[in-house]
Amino acid sequence: MYTVPKLTDYSSAALEKAASELLAALEAEAAAVRSETDWKEFRDRWMARKNGVLTQVNDLWLKAAPKDAKRDVGQRVNELKAKVEQGIDAALGRAKGGESPPQINRARDAVVCGSARIDGFVGRAGGRGGGGEHGPVSLFW
């Protein structure tokens, strides 16, 4: 089981090595997920707010980084967070027997919601005459 190391070297090479080890552990643990119950334990271990692996990465890597390294460490932590979320979603898909993970469905729905189709439903509330120039924007659907 992976334990987040405390970094003493914040060079690019050290960050790359630590990130590679984390991602290798993620893949190994994801491969062991066989059921939804396994997946929930896996997700909680990696994503829990108080003591999840990503929280530990934030505390032990980002918060502990020297000021001049914070930007690079922050970018790396953000990349790792995205990869961990993808790995967790992929593990759910495998645990459910190949169903598409919720992350993919949410991304697809966001594209639909972000398209011009919604623009046809955007109007302004209140106001007289020229279509409500004097009110807040309201969404209707």
Q: Could you characterize what this model shows?
A:
A two-stranded antiparallel sheet has the order 1-2. It is mainly alpha-helical and about 140 residues long. The protein has two domains: about 10-100; about 100-140, no CATH class. The protein is elongated. It is built from six helices and two strands; from the N terminus they run ααααααββ. Helix content is about 60%, strand content about 5%.
Distance between the termini: 47 Å
Assembly level: single chain
**Low-confidence runs of at least 5 consecutive residues:** 99-128
Structural class: mainly alpha
- Write down the domain tally: 2
Number of helices: 6
Strand content: under 5%
How large is the radius of gyration? 21 Å
List the helices and strands in order.
HHHHHHEE
Number of strands: 2
Give the biggest sheet: 2 strands, antiparallel
Shape: elongated
Provide the residue-averaged pLDDT. Answer: 80
Helix content: 55-70%
The largest beta-sheet arranges its strands as: 1-2
